[in-house]
């Protein structure tokens, strides 16, 4: 019965948003979002950072513990967007950025100019599932925030993370996830997920990403659940923490 109600509500929302689905069918929606999504995300991350400032500071507070044998911290950020996390990285950190959308590069360069305490290495246009341009065991830390919700294959992304991390390196994450299955929030996440996915460049509301992390084979996983202080109830359930290779 519940599945039928969800189906009916999804159908009603699809009818109401039919022009968006039509543009997607014609292949125009994806083109528009690839061009304009970076500017939306840049504005969203300003608000997100304000709300999540203390949690991000907590998350990245021990980055220096993973400085490699060279004495420098080599960090790779997957789905870097416009560089919203740069301010939280320690001075001298050498940063490589990976994102499948080349339209982020211009905004990224602007962010780099404002965060001169970092040393920028390069921007790689690639999906998290295939970062072959990055060598095996070549980075100390991989960072991924608000990305696992939208990748095509979480397992494959984490395999790539493990490949590029040196032994003893760490993977840092902060992600919105599915709400508890018995909650109204989870009900509405299921109802709105297809339209949300299209509207926000592949973002999924119902992923239980903590389970993927638990199966990824890290030697240590420090993971916390929290209700983020955000206005949108749908994305308040979060996980954050780090895992060691």
Give a description of the structure.
The protein has 245 residues and is α/β, with parallel strands linked by helices. Helices cover 40% and strands 22% of the residues. It has helices at residues 2-16, 18-25, 28-59, 105-114, 154-164, 184-199, 209-214; strands spanning 74-78, 94-99, 119-125, 139-145, 165-176, 220-227, 237-244. A 7-stranded mixed beta sheet has the order 3-2-1-4-5-7-6. Helix 1 (2-16) runs parallel beside helix 6 (184-199). It is globular. The mean pLDDT is 89.
Protein topology:
Elements: H1 2-16, H2 18-25, H3 28-59, E1 74-78, E2 94-99, H4 105-114, E3 119-125, E4 139-145, H5 154-164, E5 165-176, H6 184-199, H7 209-214, E6 220-227, E7 237-244
Parallel strand pairs: 1-2, 1-4, 2-3, 4-5
Antiparallel strand pairs: 5-7, 6-7
Helix pairs in contact: 1-6
For this entry, give a set of tags.
single chain, 245 residues, alpha/beta, 7-stranded mixed beta sheet, 7 helices, 40% helix
Overall geometry = globular
Secondary-structure-based class equals: alpha/beta
Cα Rg: 18 Å
Average of per-residue pLDDT values: 89
Low-pLDDT sequence parts: none
Helix-strand pattern, N to C?
HHHEEHEEHEHHEE
Give the terminus-to-terminus CA distance: 44 Å
Helix segment tally: 7
Please give the largest β-sheet: 7 strands, mixed
Helix content: 40-55%
Assembly context of the chains: single chain
Percent strand equals: 15-25%
Q: What spatial order of strands do you see in the largest sheet? A: 3-2-1-4-5-7-6
Would you report the number of β strands?
7
In short:
The chain has 245 residues and is α/β, with parallel strands linked by helices. It has helices spanning 2-16, 18-25, 28-59, 105-114, 154-164, 184-199, 209-214, and strands at residues 74-78, 94-99, 119-125, 139-145, 165-176, 220-227, 237-244.
């Amino acid at each position: 019965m519940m599945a039928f109600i969800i189906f009916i509500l999804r159908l009603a929302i699809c009818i109401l948003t039919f022009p968006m689905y039509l543009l997607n069918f014609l292949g125009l929606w994806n083109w528009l979002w690839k061009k304009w999504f970076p500017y939306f995300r840049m504005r969203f991350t300003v608000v997100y950072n304000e709300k999540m400032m203390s949690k991000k500071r907590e998350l990245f507070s021990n980055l220096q513990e993973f400085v490699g044998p060279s004495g420098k911290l080599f960090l790779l950020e997957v789905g870097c967007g416009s560089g919203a996390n740069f301010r939280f990285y320690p001075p001298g950190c050498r940063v490589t950025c990976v994102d499948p959308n080349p339209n982020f590069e211009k905004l990224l360069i602007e962010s780099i100019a404002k965060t001169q305490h970092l040393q920028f290495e390069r921007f790689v246009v690639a999906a998290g599932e295939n970062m072959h341009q990055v060598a095996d065991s070549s980075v100390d830390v991989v960072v991924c925030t608000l990305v696992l919700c939208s990748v095509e294959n979480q397992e494959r992304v984490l395999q790539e993370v493990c490949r590029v991390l040196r032994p003893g390196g760490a993977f840092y994450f902060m992600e919105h996830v599915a709400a508890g299955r018995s909650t109204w929030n989870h009900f509405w996440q299921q109802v709105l997920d297809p339209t949300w996915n299209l509207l926000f460049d592949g973002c999924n509301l119902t992923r239980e990403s903590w389970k993927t992390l638990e199966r990824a084979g890290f030697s240590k996983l420090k993971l916390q659940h929290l209700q983020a202080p955000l206005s949108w109830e749908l994305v308040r359930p979060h996980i954050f923490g780090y895992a060691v290779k």
